[in-house]
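Section 4.2 – Deliverable D4.2 (structural model, holo form)

The reporting period included a commitment to supply a predicted holo structure for the target in complex with coproporphyrinogen I. Inputs used:
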Amino acid sequence: MDGNSPLRPQDFPALKNDTFLRAARGEETEYTPVWCMRQAGRYLPEFRETRAAQDFFATCRSPKMCCELTLQPLRRFPLDAAIIFSDILVVPQALGMEVVMVPGKGPTFPEPLKEVEDLLKLRQKVDVSEELGYVFQAITLTRHSLEGKVPLIGFSGAPWTLMSYMIEGGGSNTMAKAKRWLYRHPEASHRLLQLLRDVIVEYLVGQVAAGAQALQLFESHAGHLGPEQFREFALPYIRAIAKHVKNKLQAEALPPVPMIVFAKDAHYALEELAQAGYEVIGLDWTIQPQAARERTGHRVTLQGNLDPCALYAPKEKIGELVKRMLEGFGTQRYIANLGHGLYPDMSPEHVGAFVEAVHTHSRHLRTPD
Ligand code: 1CP
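Output (structure tokens):
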């Protein structure tokens, strides 16, 4: 194998557009970088075609397919970052749980955790390279295939969000089963959260070793916790993940990468999140840009937060909403995004209008005539 093998995490092509990374690190940018959560997704006809008739998790296990799906939105839109196509639920699979994609229902665990004793069924020591090596290979292949166009973001679910899926067995409106554990079995809950934390740390470090240039931690179910439970069952793990990932990257002589935390609906904890060791705080659309800025100071870069449903609006309206959002966040220490992922019925054309509006208005705001 020569040094440029697409499956070797070395000799990557030089990065041509580092706007996203500079904004993440708090450096000045000449325009506002933009990417979209779920930019590789079912709203793209080419995504539906590639995914057709294939099992979702089989797709996740194919580095070639993950690479192709990651690149698809970049062929259409001048996005400033790519995010590796995968899913947060590959981590519970690595712990030994079965997760299947049920058409029309979503990801489902046939045997969710019911009793505290069920924790013993989980692998207590996970060989992350063995269980999740396919994600690392997908990252390496994609980083080579990107040809340095934009940086590649790696990601993981955060411990509480993964715990909630492992107990609920799938999506849930109330999270009642998972929250029941927090109230009735706090010690066992902490044991599970610690197990997840340790696997996530190794998983994220492995992603950087494979070629990821930034990392995002998804605490998508933060809003189901109130401030007290967030402080007890989510925040300490979010903090520990940033600290341990950074320490390990340094110890293993890997490049330091910016880390993003997206704790959906956790604006009650914004001040604490701003001090949790992340360079970037991802925001959902329920908080006003100015308020988020005031509450986080200038310690962190903010990312977000247009209501994804705003993309149903006519294109001119999208432009107006983007302009207002950019004015609210200001020109620096900011990465534009939606406040959550794109939905399958959204129009690619409107996604394009969103991306273009960010680039146009953000340049205009810097040099008003
Ligand atoms: O068949 C399909 O294509 C299913 C749709 C789909 C897609 C496109 C799922 C199932 N996962 C994904 C990819 C995915 N998931 C990415 C790819 C990269 C990109 O953003 O372009 C990412 C980052 C995720 C992360 C993810 N998966 C999250 C965190 C983000 C969020 O939405 O809050 C969560 C909660 C999941 C679980 C999941 N996977 C899939 C679905 C439908 C769900 C939600 C299930 C539920 O709660 O009901």
